[in-house]
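User: Quick sanity check before I run a bigger batch. Here is a single chain. Can you write out its predicted 3D structure?
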Amino acid sequence: MNTTKRVVVIGTGAGGLAAAAYLARDGFDVLALEQAEHLGGYLNPFRRDGFLFDPGVHYVGECSPGRIMHEVLTGLDIDPTALFCELEPDGFDVYQFPDFEVRACRGLDEYRARLSALFPHERDGLVRLFDVVRRVDELVSMTSMKLGWSTLKGLAQLPFVMRWASRTFDELLLAHIADPRLRAVLAAAGGDYGLPPGRASAIVGLQLLAHYAHGAFFPRGGSGALRDALVGAAERHGARFRTRARVARILTDDGRASSVILDTGELIAADVVVSDVNPVRTLGQMLDPEIVPRAMRKKLANIEHSLGVCGLFLGMRRDLRAHGLGRFNVWSHSGWNIDAEYAPVFEGRLPDDPMLFLSPNSLKDDSGAMAPAGSSTLEIVTMAPYSMFKRWSGKPCGERGPEYQAEKTRIADWMLSTLERRWPGLVGDVVVQEVSTPLTDEHYTLAVEGGIYGPAMTPAQTGLRRFRPVTFVPNLVLAGAGVFGDGVAPCLYSGRVAAAVAAREVAPARRRLLRGRSSSGSRGTPAGAST
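Assistant: Done. Predicted structure follows.
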């Protein structure tokens, strides 16, 4: 392979890092550009007074042999067994409702049996539902060993996928389960994709159930360990990284991507450009608008962005295991109607009684690196509307004024008072307290409107209706949450696929074919720290 071929990777989230590492491994000259001060996107932790916090990673699935995470990492000579420690197999997620609690466990048969014991009148419906989940799990296993959009396109033709591709998760649950309480339990972790069941794609709801069927895991030492492993794999093969290098434009020559321009005016030539940035920014803001096909302009203009979040990061001089927490997450719900719980957020305000996600990351990590001895970290997250914070958007960090700081204090008090009502005495001995808002994600990761999951995972924006790795511009390839969906595993896989696509883009015959398609337009119409 001609090692003089240069690839510029824009963004170093999970997808960008995987793409950079694989392309470097395969002999390309790789330069990865990151607009922030540190590499990693949502894999980048932050430290305060001896406590280490992970804004973007709380658990991952697919780490066992034959699964996506395992295959992508081992392909880079990264050992997932050494990198990850498993969460509590008998209950890695705890779903709390008023006077009721369910623990999600490893194994589809085991989890179905647990739910059947709690809801014996729904035993038959659970059998039928988990049969669908099992088939999704088998498809995930198949795709972990294959690459390319054509593979996913073929899988999408399977009857049960086609049946549910345009429907919501709530519709799928209603077709199998009559008890609204059980439907709420099955949708309780919807914060992992940021939507209630009435708005989420049926496919993404199924994928989440399948994703943790083989257990849930946490990077040993925190998310930075995963980032460092990916960066190390890339650098061992010669990849180079630059921080504080924000790409303003992607230029084309003879119809293909040929270079990028930084916001400083510096021009960097490239044979291929891989963008790990939200497709709305990549295709809608970085390219010359005149080369964007009309159908794509319409698609970009009508994208529904995912919701933002508010996060509360606590470092406490206490062992939270003595207060009932452990190697698991807690999804604390105010009631059984999850769509109603989300409704105020879609109306532009915070709920009076919100869903809270509790993640004691230091208890999940067996290395002891995330908190001082006898101490613990706790990260509390809830969904939040970007519109509440839009008036401060565009202002530099630290210059948003006292009203913004007062709003953050109000949000922290609201989250803490909610948690105290549901779990009295859990929080205490606090020595570190940081608050994030959707503006935090907008600043550090360029999340459009603070949406942490890229385009929202609705039926209209899932599967083949999402963005393709191959774009209407030859030699411009997409990776990240806008391609296969949000989460570490889908983003890593998107980077692996992007690397394979980028390698094909520079093949002369392929380039001529794509240039012809570009001319015809056929490729342009596809179906933290606190601030």
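The chain has 19 helices and 19 strands.

User: Great, the batch can go ahead then.
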